[in-house]
């Protein structure tokens, strides 16, 4: 009787072999757990290996932070004549635009990925976003037009199958 080889041994593409090996490392007691396809998309996008032909509207990482945080500074109270009078101008601090000085260097170096799904997302996809952010040490923000429950998904599939 011949022993079977793992499926990735027949694969010649090194990226796919690496992907299969990473997936095998993640294998836990819950081998039958469903893995959403969006997980692979998130991983490849963060690693920079996402196919540009299939996903032409995904932007390249810019390497700079576009978010600037307003930093408040104190103003000197306004003095009129010999007495100091309180005015609204002196009560409101001046807002100065400054690069993010309060953000740590660790947060600046983290990659960020924003995923928005038209039609809604499932809880399993949110779980995958959390797992990918922990595994690849990055921030993954996921959202959609709605958060779907399994019963809502089945209802939508049933409605679509009745239309066809």
TrEMBL record:
Signal peptide region: none
UniProt-listed SUPFAM superfamilies: Sec1/munc18-like (SM) proteins
InterPro entries, per the entry: Sec1-like (IPR001619), Sec1-like_dom2 (IPR027482), Sec1-like_sf (IPR036045)
Domain of life, source organism: Eukaryota
Any one GO biological process: vesicle-mediated transport
Family: Belongs to the STXBP/unc-18/SEC1 family.
The protein's name: Syntaxin binding protein
């Amino acid at each position: 009787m011949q022993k079977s080889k793992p499926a990735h041994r027949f694969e010649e593409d090194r990226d796919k072999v690496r992907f299969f090996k990473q997936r095998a490392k993640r294998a836990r007691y819950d081998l039958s757990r469903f893995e959403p396809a969006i997980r692979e998309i998130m991983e490849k996008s963060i690693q920079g290996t996402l196919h540009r032909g299939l996903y032409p509207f995904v932007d390249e990482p810019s390497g700079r932070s576009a978010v600037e945080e307003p930093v408040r500074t104190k103003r000197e109270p306004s003095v009129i004549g010999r007495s100091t009078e309180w005015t609204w101008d002196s009560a409101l601090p001046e807002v100065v635009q400054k690069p993010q000085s309060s953000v740590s260097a660790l947060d600046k170096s983290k990659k960020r990925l924003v995923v928005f799904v038209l039609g809604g997302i499932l809880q399993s996809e949110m779980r995958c976003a959390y797992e990918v952010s922990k595994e690849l040490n990055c921030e993954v923000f996921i959202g959609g037009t709605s958060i779907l429950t399994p019963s809502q998904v089945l209802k939508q599939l049933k409605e679509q199958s009745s239309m066809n």
